[in-house]
Specification:
single chain; 6 helices; globular
């Protein structure tokens, strides 16, 4: 029942992040040869009804060829932007995510991190901030 609940929550998050397929880190580890898949880190979240933090990944093999190419082209920058974001260097992260959005306007995840970086830069974060998003969507 718990696994079904989490799967349902992940399905709901596909709309939030603009992703076709979202999986947890534990599912990604069970895939065996991870290098056969095109994926990227999405977020660390707690979902409605759960207190455990879940790392979420997007598998984008099934997207259009253009989308795959753009995500691969911006992958290194995206990873650097995430690193800066979680280090709370929101100014630099914001610049990186903005550039990704200019290269790939359809990358909703980069746009989300751009907006989060902007908000956190402007308003700050609470003490003990860890970057974990509490999501209430079903």
């Amino acid at each position: 029942a718990d696994a079904v609940n989490l799967a349902s929550r992940l399905e709901g998050l596909t709309k939030v992040y603009g992703s076709g397929i979202l999986v947890t880190e534990s599912i990604l580890e069970r895939l065996g040869d991870r290098e056969k898949y095109m994926y990227r880190f999405v977020d660390r979240v707690t979902v409605k009804g759960k207190k455990t933090v879940v790392s979420v990944f997007e598998i984008y093999d099934a997207e259009t060829e253009q989308s795959i190419e753009l995500k691969q082209e911006t992958d290194a920058a995206f990873q650097k932007g995430l690193e800066l974001y979680f280090e709370q260097n929101f100014t630099k992260a914001q610049k990186i995510f903005k550039k990704i959005c200019e290269t790939n306007p359809q990358d909703k995840l980069a746009a989300i991190y751009y907006q989060r970086s902007l908000k956190n830069r402007m308003y700050g974060v609470s003490e003990g901030w860890s970057g974990i998003e509490a999501l209430d969507q079903k």
